[in-house]
User: What shape does this take?
Amino acid sequence: MSALGIAIGIATMISVIGISASGQEHLLRQLDQLGTNLLRVEPGKALMSDPVKLHPDAALMVRRISGVTGASVTGTVDTSVRRTDRIPKEDTGGLTVQATSLDLLRTLDGRVAAGRWLDEAIARQPAVVLGTVAAQRLGVSRTGVQV
Assistant: This one.
């Protein structure tokens, strides 16, 4: 009986370890497919003080870390985007505005479906790149439309 109990215990341990290793492998495969090579860095939240801010050279510092292939900067802008100036300022359509460095598209390995990404030629001009959902909410179906 004792030997049978030990054999059942060992078999149970082997099956539990095998199942967890199999599950771990499956999880790692899923994470690889999701592109977990993307790391997002943002400032922490202070309880009773001014908002915490990242250092202005944070992206440059991150680029120097071994294994980092690219780093870009984004930040929230206190403004809103509307299709026309006749829409009240309070009606944002759930859209937020972000400013970004020009290399964000390359860092994310993204692509533009229509139009073009921000570049040096238009960097100092008021320009906007809309995502699919934002374009739909604003009723924009082609490039070159003013928002």
